[in-house]
Structures are given as structure tokens and as C-alpha cells.
Write a structure and sequence with these properties.
single chain; about 575 residues; alpha/beta; Glucose Oxidase, domain 1; Enzyme I, Chain A, domain 2; TIM Barrel; 8-stranded mixed sheet
């Protein structure tokens, strides 16, 4: 038996066999060949195998997601049936006497260049499809299995260097009991999505993950970050006891599903859910969420080589609104940069991307991109209480500029006779310290605030929040951070607007009463944390929440505040 700890990023207990997700090596070498016919046959076999794989994916997508979403796979099948595409590879093999892998690579480049050169926007977007198809054919040529997550049929705990948002999304519906990643931390995107789906997870394992072999018996505690490899009988017995206690706790929390978030004496705190895709809204509704406090729209843009169209975005936003049946749905406009890359935008690498060209700065610079999203949001706002939120705001001028583009989107839709809701509430993220300090002025420009504590803590404490080497410096309970939150809440309260927290701090066990005591009116978190937040609030009066918040604010250091909090939680 071997035991170690990393960073617990999504609470819960898991027991299953390990499944190692290996990095794919798609490097292509220009090898020469002598048997042209044999190499051409390899291409034919790889293409036929790709056709079978894609047909299966299409059927699964139609069954689990919907017919419209499955149509992309029909387009991929048509391309694989195109003689020009296949003959492009076999022709390169015959002409240059090169291996099938290199021919596949060159053929992909040729077709992508051709599509990108076309004037039609739709045809330009097909370049990304060519890349997807060619990658699949190349994997077949190299004997690399399709995504290991797609093939999961037995309960397992995934071990990976990291998981992309699309990797994590693949887990839905699979018997994945939990996962461990070598890199990342509590605020990495795979961790955030794990919490949204209620899957136990551990991050920042580093080289310790090398201790795990494929098929090892594993225990995972997503709360403490503890991993046990090949547990003995006594450890397994203890685990079963903890699991039974966890189940009792779940049954207790379920009694709060249909209750409003409030303190014991009735001080209302609206409890909402964070989502990354429309389907997540269904889980928020099922677990008693009083709205969606943060829809991270950038997940529609990531892990793909093209940009989502206005229609695709409209459909996603509309679906989330319909799932929440009239409850608020706050959608954050495109928040990319830093640790979130969008290949289709080809953004330059920056020395300090977290402080660079990102979020609202990109949108105000690339207004066509911004207008497309705002048009989709305004149209979808007809189907629910949709609210628009601008990220990374640092000044009133940025708010006014963003609202000018929003007005431009309204004017365009009106001129085109397209139906939309013009009376959409507009808010901003408070995540830059100067925004918190100037919150009294900014409150006069918007309908609501939402404090993004992940970045607010990062910028206030000068710590890269996804760097596991300095994760000990990321201190949510630092009195300076708490003072910025109180300052923001006070400005919102005095100006009669809602003020929420949508960072991971909102869903941290025991934090709901503290944030309530600081003056926060809305808390948005992973769906799996909502019931516990309601229970935490119901255990205390508003006066108790205020008293303890004041004690934390007066603490001389982050360490002292953390000790106070730990003692209060016992």
C-alpha cells in the first residue's frame, strides 16, 4: 500500500481501478518507401476505419445530445467519401515515395490552405473539419487508439497530465468515478468542470502520479487530496465507513433542494450555479439552484479550430435559459487569454498573459467577434431572464464602451427585423483590485456586480493560481482579499444593485455565511456545492454571519484568519 496527498479539487470519495490517459504522439517523419501499393492500402484502411468511428460518434451524439449537434459528423463522413481527399494522399505517396503518415499530413495542409483561401466564411470554417478528419486518419495510421475516455465501459479513476474541457465533458455518462491530474489546482478548468459534474478529483499530483500503474486499485478523497494505491483491508474498511457517512450527508442535504438560500433568521442569499455548457443548467435546476450565476461562454470557443457562429451561440444560450425556466441566467461574455486559449483566434504568446490581452480587452478590440456574441445573447434573452456580464473590467470607460457595442448589436438586429429582448440587465465582473476599490463609481454604470474571487485573489496576492509550486500563497481568507469583497458589497448595497460571488470561494464549505456577513447577496458555485451552501447559511443568523466576518477582517494575517475559520468550522 502507498499513500500520498496532492490538491483536492472536487470533493467526494472514489474507489476503482486506475486508467492511465497517455499523451498522443502525432509527430510525423518524412520516411521514404519502396512498396507504394502497400502504403496506399494503409491509407485506404485508415480512412475506412475512420468512417466507422465517425458513424459511431454520430449515432452516440444524436442519442445523447441531439440531431442538430450530430450533423457535424455527417459532414465529416461526406469529406471522407470525397475521392479528391483520399486520392490526395495516395497521389502524394505515388509521386514522392513517402510514407502514409507524411502523405496524410501534407494532404491536410493542402486542403486546409485551399479552404482558408476561399471568400465564403462557411467554406473557410471547413478547414477545421479537415484538420479533425486528418488527425483521426493519422491516429489510425500510427495505431493510436481513439480517445481513451470514449472507450470507458468499466468503473475507473482516470490519471492524466491534464484534462481539457472537452476531455472532461466526455466523462459525462461514463462510469468515471474520479480523476487525478499531474498539473493544475483548484481553479483549473478540469477541476471546475469536475465540481460541476460532481466527480471527485485531485490535481497537482506531479511525479507522484508515476507511482500509479494501469489497473492499480485506487482510493481517492477529493476533499483532502489523499490517494491510496493498493489499499489494505483495514484502509478499505475505513473507506467504506467514510462512504456511508458521505451518503448520509447527501441525504440530509437533499432536504434543502427546494428551499431558498437564507440564514436562520431569513436573510436572503440567492444560491446559483456555475456552468460551462448548456446541459449543465439542467443539473443546476435539478439540485435546487435559484439561477445560473455564471455561464462561462468561453467553453463554446475552446478546444476547436473554428469560432462558433451566431446561430450556434444563440442555440446554446437559449437552451440554458429554457432549462432554468425563468430563473436568472448570467452569461459572461468571452473571457479568454491567460490559461484559456482559443486556437481560432491565433493570439500571440505573451510573457504575462494573465495581465495581458484578454477578456473584455479582446472584445473591445475585435468588435466583430464581440458583436456576434452580443447578437446571439440578445436573441436568446427572449427565452428567459438572461443577463449579460462583462469580464475583467477596470474602469467606467470600459463599461461604457462595452455598452456602446451592445447598443450597436441592438441597432443591427432592429434594422434586420430580427426579434430580441432589448431590456437585458448588464453587469460586470469585479476581479481586478482597482475595480473593487472604485466599486462605488462602477456601481452607477451597471445593474449588478459579480465578484470573480479566483482572479481577485490571484491579482491581490500576486500569485499564479494554476502554479502548484506556489499554491500555498493563494489565500482566499487573506484579510486584504476580504476587505476588497466587503468594499465591493458595500458599494453595491448602497447603490441598490445585486452583488454576487461567482468564484470558487462561493462554493467552499463554510464560506457562504462569511460572504453573507460581508454583504454579498448572491452566491454562484458548482452545482454540487449548492445544497451544502444552503445548509451552512441555515445554521446561522445574519448577526452571527456579520460578527464572524468582522473577526476575519480584523485578523492580523491570512494564517490567523485561516485558524479562526478552522476553529469556527469545528
Amino acid at each position: 500500500m502507498l499513500k500520498w496527498k496532492a490538491i483536492g479539487v472536487s470533493e467526494g470519495l472514489a474507489h476503482a481501478k486506475a486508467l492511465i490517459i497517455k499523451e498522443e504522439d502525432l509527430t510525423v517523419v518524412k520516411d521514404t518507401i519502396t512498396d507504394v501499393a502497400a502504403e496506399q492500402q494503409r491509407v485506404t484502411d485508415a480512412v475506412e476505419k475512420a468512417q466507422v468511428q465517425i458513424a459511431q460518434l454520430r449515432d452516440e451524439a444524436e442519442k445523447n445530445i441531439g440531431a442538430a449537434e450530430a450533423e457535424i459528423f455527417d459532414a465529416h463522413l461526406l469529406m471522407l467519401d470525397d475521392p479528391d481527399f483520399v486520392e490526395g494522399m495516395t497521389g502524394i505517396i505515388a509521386d514522392e515515395k513517402v510514407c502514409a503518415e507524411y502523405a496524410c499530413f501534407v494532404n491536410c495542409e493542402n486542403f486546409q490552405q485551399m479552404f482558408r483561401a476561399m471568400d465564403d466564411e462557411y467554406m473557410q470554417a471547413r478547414a477545421a473539419d479537415i484538420g479533425d478528419i486528418s488527425k483521426r486518419v493519422l491516429k489510425n495510421l500510427k495505431g493510436i487508439a481513439d480517445n481513451a475516455i470514449d472507450a470507458v465501459t468499466e468503473p475507473c479513476i482516470l490519471i492524466a497530465n491534464d484534462l481539457t474541457p472537452s476531455d472532461t465533458a466526455r466523462i459525462g455518462g461514463k462510469p468515471v468515478m474520479g480523476f487525478i491530474t499531474r498539473i493544475g489546482g483548484r481553479t483549473s478548468h478540469s477541476a471546475i468542470m469536475a465540481r460541476s459534474m460532481g466527480i471527485p478529483a485531485i490535481a497537482g499530483a506531479g511525479d507522484r502520479a508515476d507511482d500509479i500503474a494501469d489497473g492499480d486499485d485506487l482510493l481517492l478523497d477529493g476533499s483532502t487530496g489523499e490517494v491510496v494505491i493498493a489499499p489494505d483491508a483495514e484502509t478499505l474498511a475505513d473507506f467504506k465507513t467514510k462512504k456511508a457517512e458521505e451518503e448520509k450527508r447527501r441525504e440530509f442535504l437533499a432536504t434543502y433542494r427546494d428551499r431558498e438560500g437564507a440564514t436562520a433568521d431569513g436573510r436572503r442569499v440567492v444560491i446559483e450555479g456555475n456552468i460551462g455548457k448548456p446541459d449543465d443548467a439542467v443539473r443546476v435546476a435539478e439540485l435546487g439552484g435559484e439561477g445560473v450565476g455564471l455561464f462561462r461562454s468561453e467553453f463554446l470557443f475552446m478546444d476547436r479550430d473554428d469560432l462558433p457562429s451566431e446561430e450556434e451561440q444563440f442555440g446554446a444560450y437559449k437552451k440554458a435559459c429554457e432549462a432554468m425556466a425563468g430563473k436568472p441566467v448570467i452569461i459572461r461574455t468571452l473571457d479568454i487569454g491567460g490559461d484559456k486559449e482559443v486556437p481560432a483566434l491565433s493570439l500571440e504568446k505573451e510573457q504575462n498573459p494573465f495581465l495581458g490581452y484578454r477578456a473584455i480587452r479582446i472584445c473591445l478590440n475585435q468588435t466583430d467577434l464581440f458583436l456576434t456574441q452580443l447578437r446571439a445573447l440578445l436573441r436568446a434573452a427572449q427565452y428567459g431572464d438572461l443577463r449579460i456580464m462583462f469580464p475583467m473590467i477596470s474602469s467606467a470607460e470600459e463599461i461604457r464602451s462595452a455598452k456602446q457595442v451592445l447598443q450597436q448589436a441592438k441597432d443591427l438586429l432592429t434594422a434586420e427585423g430580427v426579434a430580441f429582448n432589448a431590456n437585458v440587465k448588464v453587469g460586470i465582473m469585479i476581479e481586478i483590485p482597482v475595480a473593487a476599490i472604485c466599486a462605488d463609481a462602477l456601481a452607477k454604470e451597471v445593474d449588478f456586480f459579480s465578484i470573480g474571487t479566483n482572479d481577485l485573489i490571484q491579482y491581490s496576492c500576486a500569485v499564479d493560481r494554476i502554479n502548484e509550486k506556489i499554491s500555498y500563497l493563494y489565500r482566499p481568507l487573506h484579510p486584504g482579499v476580504l476587505r476588497l469583497i466587503r468594499m465591493t458589497a458595500k458599494a453595491a448595497n448602497e447603490n441598490g444593485i445585486e452583488v454576487g460571488v461567482c468564484g470558487e470561494m462561493a462554493g467552499t464549505p463554510g464560506m457562504a455565511p462569511i460572504l453573507c456577513g460581508l454583504g454579498v447577496t448572491n452566491l454562484s458555485m458548482s452545482a454540487s456545492a449548492m445544497l451544502a451552501a444552503k445548509a451552512d447559511l441555515a445554521d446561522h443568523t445574519f448577526a452571527e454571519c456579520q460578527t464572524f466576518a468582522e473577526q476575519l477582517l480584523a485578523a492580523p494575517s491570512a494564517t490567523a484568519a485561516e485558524e479562526l475559520f478552522a476553529g469556527w468550522r469545528k
